[in-house]
């Protein structure tokens, strides 16, 4: 089963996405890179915004529980059928399924490490080299 976040209403999901996109691109990249290594961003504000964005992205809905390989696999099957039946509309649907599967996979790959960290407190290993508290 895929990792999913807590259920959130539409307004909260929109606010989480806006807050994440308002962060500096360097902070977003750094938060993701640290999360992939199992570490939280040292700036508490960036860490919390990134976690809420991941939670908003990975809502407990059926499409976030489906394995990411399903859409591209269905697209590949439809491509074979499109060539078999000589149907370009079916090939277009297959292309859309493969693209949607790629986007879903990328989104999940970006969000799962952030969500897996949870809302735990900042640990000493997550702090900047100076060892001081994260500045707001």
Automatic annotation (TrEMBL):
Keyword terms: Membrane, Transmembrane, Transmembrane helix
Membrane spanning residue stretches: 46-63, 69-85, 90-107
Protein origin, superkingdom: Bacteria
Name listed for the protein in its UniProt record: DUF3040 family protein
């Amino acid at each position: 089963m895929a990792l999913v976040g807590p259920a959130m209403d539409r307004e909260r999901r929109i606010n989480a996405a806006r807050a994440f996109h308002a962060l500096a691109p360097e902070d977003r990249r750094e938060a993701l890179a640290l999360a992939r290594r199992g570490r939280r961003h040292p700036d508490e504000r960036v860490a919390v915004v990134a976690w809420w964005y991941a939670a908003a992205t990975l809502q407990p809905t059926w499409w976030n529980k489906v394995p990411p390989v399903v859409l591209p696999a269905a697209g590949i099957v439809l491509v074979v059928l499109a060539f078999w039946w000589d149907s370009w509309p079916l090939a277009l649907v297959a292309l859309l399924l493969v693209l949607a599967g790629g986007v879903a996979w990328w989104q999940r790959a970006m969000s799962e490490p952030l969500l897996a960290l949870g809302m735990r407190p900042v640990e000493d290993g997550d702090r900047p080299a100076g060892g001081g508290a994260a500045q707001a």
